[in-house]
Amino acid sequence: MSWASTERYRIRPAPGGLALVQELLNTRAIPPYGEDVLAGGTGVRWLRDVTAAWAEEQGWPGPSGEPRAGDLERVRALRERLAALVTGEAEPVRAPTDVSLRPGLDEEGRVALVPAGSPGEWLEGAVWAQVLLAQADGTWQRLKLCREPACRSAFYDRSRNNSGVWHDVRRCGNAANLRASRARRKQRAAEAPTGE
Questions:
Q1: Contacts with 46 (C-beta within 8 Å, 6 or more apart), sequence order
Q2: What global pTM score does this model have?
Q3: Quick one: residue 155, left, alpha or beta (phi over 0 = left, psi -120 to 50 = alpha)?
Q4: In angstroms, rounded to a whole number, what is the distance separating the alpha carbons of residues 33 and 81?
Q5: E strands along the chain, which residues?
Q6: For residue 26, how far is the Cα from the chain centroid?
Q7: Rounded to 5 degrees, what are φ and ψ at 67?
Q8: Are 112 and 103 in contact (CB under 8 A)?
């Protein structure tokens, strides 16, 4: 399956269903990589393509009908909730999200949570199911947002000790290190005694 929003950042997709979550997070506009994928006509096309491809890959029935007026708004709100969840800034939700997940069985007899509804509802159900599975299998904490404020792309931390903070060390890591180095030089210059 192609993960166009993630691939535009030159990032390897996360394993399994976390790739779907990562793809949604990476639809945000981040210069110089690209515009917000969920804006206007491109958003409708992205939603239609991603839900169809994910349904086919999983062997599930796809969403019912074409994207509706509120689907993109729903998906953008989901993207923001997920970003807050990934960074640990999410507020507890006392009222459940209105999604439809139906139990199903795959070829090996494992239970699957199969989404239903319009494309926006379907995607939201699929994403929440993948978050739940990733939290249960311990891979959730490896999905991160790049620490570089100008970036914030979603990446899967493949480091042995789960210590990665940038999606691209050369691009975002170097920018952060350069800013830190300049700040230290400026601080030293400010603290240096002036010739009297």
A1: 4, 5, 27, 37, 38
A2: 0.86
A3: beta
A4: 22
A5: 100-105, 111-116, 143-145, 154-156
A6: 5
A7: -55, 135
A8: yes
Q: Report the C-alpha gap between 167 and 64 in whole angstroms.
A: 35
Q: Quick one: which of 9, 17, 75, 81 has its CA closest to 46? A: 75
**Residue 66 confidence class, pLDDT cut points 50, 70, 90:** very high
Beta pairing class for 143-145 and 100-105: unpaired
55: left (phi over 0), alpha (psi -120 to 50) or beta: alpha
Q: Of 182, 180, 173, 183, which is closest to residue 147 (Cα–Cα)? A: 173
Q: Which two tokens stand for residue 77?
A: 């709100």
Report pLDDT digits (tens) over 68-116. Answer: 889 999 999 999 999 999 999 998 877 677 889 999 988 889 898 999 9
b or e along 111-126 (b: 16 or more beta carbons within 10 Å of the residue's beta carbon)? ebbbbbbbbbbbbbbb
In order of 91, 97, 115, the CA distances from 94 in angstroms are: 9, 9, 21
Coil, strand, or helix at residue 155?
A: strand
Rounded Cα distance, 21 and 26, in Å: 9
Q: Is 29 exposed, middle or buried (0-12, 13-18, 19+ CB in 10 A)?
A: exposed
What gap in Å lies between CA 79 and CA 187, rounded to an integer? 39
